[in-house]
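The aim of this short unit is practical: by the end, you should be able to scan a pair of folded records and say something sensible about each. We start with the first protein, listed as its amino acid sequence and then its structure tokens.
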Amino acid sequence: MTQSPESPDADGINWRNLIAACAAVCVFAFSLGEMFPLLSLNMESWGVGEGMIGLNTAMAPVGILIAGLLIPRLSHIFGPKRLAIFMAGATGILFLLYPTFPSLWAWFPLRLLQGIFVATLFALSEAWVLGNAKGAYRGRVVGIYATSISATFGVGAAVVGWTGIHGYLPFVIGAAVLFAAILPISLVSDDASGSEDRPHVSMLSFLPKAPLLLMAICVHAMFDGGMLGFLAIYGVRHGMSDSTAALTITALSLGNVFFQIPIGWIADRTSKRSTMIGCFLIASVCLALFPLAIATNWIWPLVLVAGAAGFGIYTVGLAELGDRFSGPDLIAGTSAFSTMWGLGALIGAAICGKAMDVFGPHGFPGVLLAVFVSFIAVQAVRFYRAGRASA
């Protein structure tokens, strides 16, 4: 009997929904990758100071925090598919409003709305990916998903170099790509998240169900926000040129692109929790070696591995979320992931900047190392208590 593309295969994977969800999230990542440098460079060309640019950029994580509270309820009322289609169209329109209102103060509410809209799109897409990638291959599928995000994010940023930053063209390209996202979203079956006729689960009610998993995502986001915001500055403080220091971010991203599928494979073959702890340990070792390697060529492979391990925490965390939850719980869980990421990114950028001011350049990797070691210590205490209880 011929299998319908909408039916799960022997491994429990619904390929139609999975491919459609991955295609949609690639579109979102492309648009985000384009907008981050595009908006910052425009504000810089207006003569806006770095501090004010940073405040404007922070509006997106604030929007992500707000979205975490709204996504489960909106998804329950309107349905995940209809909500995602609306948000894709609304985000496309939003992109066209930036050049229409080229004002710093107008861009503050626009960035806030962008954070809310895009967080909704990501949370729903992640719920679809996890809900349709079941069985022994979930870690690898999530690895493909994570790789796709990193690669298309980089492509979006490259478009800015081709179009320039002025005029409507770069914004129109981003909007057109988002409008195109409606097509793959429309191919997702209505029951992709498995939430029909099931009670609403709020993001706040989900928090006690997986506190350590959410803590891990928050720590990952602190790493992400700190590295993206201060790694290049750390390089400049140690004698790198601006162009060379910028390449450290490229090396960090390559770790995300090339290693997430192998990390997902390891998580599938062993244990997701132990794989996550392994990522924490490897990233901690890399951070500890940064002060020794920053003035040498060893910094390049070190940043590559740090990026792979740091983002691997999110990859494995998503896979574990899919193992443990389904339906409305899964949408609430991906919403909580978005909220924890927004919170962690804000905290990470703040503490890294403060640590560099107080302790000098090495305060940047030092404070991240302290956060990672603290999380590992919490996990060690948890395992110790669990071992004593079972004994």
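Turning to the second protein, read its sequence before its tokens, just as you did above.
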Amino acid sequence: MIIFPAIDLKAGQCVRLKQGDMQRATLFNGDPSAQAEIFIKQGFSHLHVIDLDGAFAGASVNGKAIEDILAVTKKANMEVQLGGGIRDLQAIENWLDKGIHSVIVGTIAARDPNFVKNACKLFPKQIKIAIDARDGQVAVAGWAEESNLSALELAKHFEGAGAAALIYTDIARDGILKGVNVEATKKLAKTLSTPIIASGGLASIEDIIKLQAVEKYGIKGVIAGRALYEKQIKADEVLNIEGVC
């Protein structure tokens, strides 16, 4: 089970939102690269980075902060997955060339599945697809707009496409420490062959243990945000769990 500590970027700073609401942002570090260094020193080997402003703008906005993060993570061989406003092939290629390990696409996946399937062919195992759902329905454009697709319907579009993983977020739980929606994540994983990364609401070591119990269905990791920043989960305790990295 891979733990992905999260850095969400808003105006060049490291923040956490509550339920995807940009008006409910908590600042945790004004220097995102310094936050990446903290995660490296704590022993994490993977990092989840989202350009929140980019998700709304439809193009990367916090490029300088991301490049600063990469300058730190490359030295430590930390793998970085990046999302937020990446909606064309050139943007994908540019970020991969800069050292991003995998690119996350979300809004474009709901709006143009064929584009994403093509991207998966061009960049094998370097594309991860964000399936962000509120009450089971997919939300896009920084979670500001709801689609008419269910999470499962959208996920099925990409079966066999060659995506590295699907990142499933329960928006209602994101950033409020209410626990991961293990059942919904398990249901998605059991239905699909593509690996699943859980997201939204991680609050305790117990959440990780519950996910490990259903890991066999294809759940490969979980994203950790506010719980790490507010020390509800301690890095050394998490990384000492058998099977966690």
